[in-house]
Amino acid sequence: LGTHAPYISGLLALWRRSLPPHFEIDAMNVAHDPKRCPLVGDCVYDAFFTRIFEMAYTDAVVERCDGLLTKGLSALESIANSVSNVFLNAPDARSVDIWICTYPAVSCQVLLPLVEMHERAVVGYL
What's the pLDDT score for residue 14? Predict the structure, then answer.
């Protein structure tokens, strides 16, 4: 899960160069923004991510700990549950060993149910 497909592309390229040749990486780079994939070349656009990102981040304002208002993910618990339900019902997603989340860092929280209840791993690449 990431809002910047190039971040994931860079991380995957680094892993492919750094890991021993016998270590295979089968990856799917999913992005929320259809404009980014043609620029990166190795990602797929996902409408579900777009809806989540637009509803919960682009159009959302949250209060920070210091009282200031900023853009942020609202309704994190319900978004996280939706993400888990979608992923656990998608054949490709059920076989994922490691999820990667990127910027904004708070987006990693939407994957927490996958870690806590479904024993998946999450890597934050910020």
Answer: 87
What torsion do the CA atoms of 32, 38, 41, 44 make, to the nearest 10 degrees? 30
Q: How far apart are CA 71 and CA 93, in angstroms?
A: 28
What's the CA angle centered on 111, arms 126 and 73, to 5 degrees?
A: 70
- Single pTM value for the model: 0.67
**CB-based contacts of 21: which residues, under 8 Å, 6+ apart?**
none
Q: Residue 85 has which token pair?
A: 């339900």
Which pLDDT score, from 0 to 100, does residue 18 have? 92
Element at 124 (helix H, strand E): strand 121-124
Q: Which two tokens stand for residue 21?
A: 């040749």
